[in-house]
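Record 1 of the preview.
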Amino acid sequence: MGDFPDTGCAIVTGGSGGIGAAVAVLLAENGVDVVVTYNSNHGAAAETVAAVEAKGRRAQAVQVDLRDDAAVKAAVDAATGDFGGLHTLVSAHGPFIHMQHISKMSPQLFRETMETDTFGVFHLVHAALPHLRESRGALVAIATPAIQRYAVKDLLSVAPKAAVEAIVRGVAAEEGRFGIRANSVGVGVIQDGMFQALVDDGAFDDRYLEAATANTALRRLGTADEIAEAVVFLASNRARWITGQQLNVDGGYAM
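->
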């Protein structure tokens, strides 16, 4: 038994982002063909496709608004048809996280963030489950260790990901009888992905980064490649007896 099936593909949402791109490339290194989705950054998604193809695997980038359940279903069905099946679904997308106190947060911003993140995951799962049943495949979703250890001004990360974690556990409990496994990876503060945007926005200033580093047991920030290692492990047959779990890759933040 190989780490991944010989036929079919993996779908990685957020393929234009740092984590999604790292996951896609590492999947390719493990012999997997990859379909990446993106919302608006076609250039970055195309770079991910090129990086996957450079590893000798087939790749495709698909633009889709994950809030649109019909569009998500069409994209999942098309990818499955093009690649002869779907064995892995990785939810690595996420909107820009505005770091704000709850008292200063607009209801509209909260609603939009929940719709993009949580509803997007549900739409993906709902569309992919029939295909994952056929392959006895795996779902891995990006979550946050702040579900266990709340960080001030981080509600727009915590609230959607708490719902995502509930979806993951639900899939694990309900779909295990079909051979589907579902797990999540709690991502600590990493110096990739939206890191620079948060620095530019002022949310990640020197004081915040010093505190974030001090609050980890390993006293450093992580990388997208380190997150990808955990995601690909959980998606692979090496983790075939693991389901319904969240693996925090956070340097020891949420112990």
